[in-house]
Hints:
Blueprint lengths: L1 E4 L2 E4 L36 H5 L1 E6 L1 H4 L19 H9 L2 E4 L8 H4 L17 E7 L7 H13 L18 H25 L4 E5 L20 H25 L2 E3 L34 H18 L1
Helix pairs in contact: 3-8, 5-7, 6-7
Amino acid sequence: MVFSVGAGSYNLCIHNFEFLDAQGNEVTDAQKPDGGTSAAGGAPDSGAETSRGKYVAMGSSYAAGPKIPDAVPDQSCGRSTANCAHLVAAALGMDFTEVSCVGATIDNVTTTPQAMNPLQIEAVTPDTRLITITIGGNDVNYSSSLVACGRDGVNAQPCLAASADAAVPDVDSAAIDNLLDHVENKLVVMLGKVKQAAPAARIYLVAYPMVLPDPAVPCPSDVPMQAAAATFLGQVGTRLQAAFSSAAATAGVNFVDAYGPSHGHDACAPAAQRWVEGQANSAVAPYHPNAAGMRAVADLIVAAIRKTW
Length: 309
């Protein structure tokens, strides 16, 4: 389905679900975000959807879920029908608009359209009552640096320093440190604009899960980068987590911590325990959440919503 907004259009999925918890169990009226006004609590009601409002899910690939089956039809943003937005909407029984996209940055939410996609904030409408946002890693070259360092590690090459095959390093740690110094403020400004656009909505900034173990070390073949690269990129993940938490507090929005709970579920964890994959499995987006990770983060989001709504 295509949802027209402003001068552009979004490819998105809109669903209406019964109220379920994250495991698919029905919940009582008292547990529902609308206090029991959903049609799921009784006979269908023409005013139920209006009172419940709409859910908008924004973000980058960590929200979209590239390569997680099944892909949302008719879109080029890597969205999965098993990503957090779909799972949260199903658990809460809300219609939703999903505008997350692979490669999206903070600016793509409020100031700079991403390629042919409109600003993500343009999906917000007067009936929006819930917004989740997972974004910021692309602003500091996080995923691309993980992939570059993993590739160089396979070839026994450093990624943080020049080598015989490269006059400059594939990953500029000084530049990334500088970007990290500014990402929190960018998040705060973006969140302020989203709040202005959706004054009646509850907004949840969702952190990234832990990608590398703590302490960060390589683990061939899933994370084959050199030890120095793993240490540096582990620090990038930690600094991003701090930026997310602080930005949410400063902007006055809710924060969903996916980083702490994912300890032990990183790309080096046993396969059955992973929420994030490394690069050994070509069927999964490297250094991104897998289906289990999406389910776990969706559980955290739903729990945070029920606690604060």
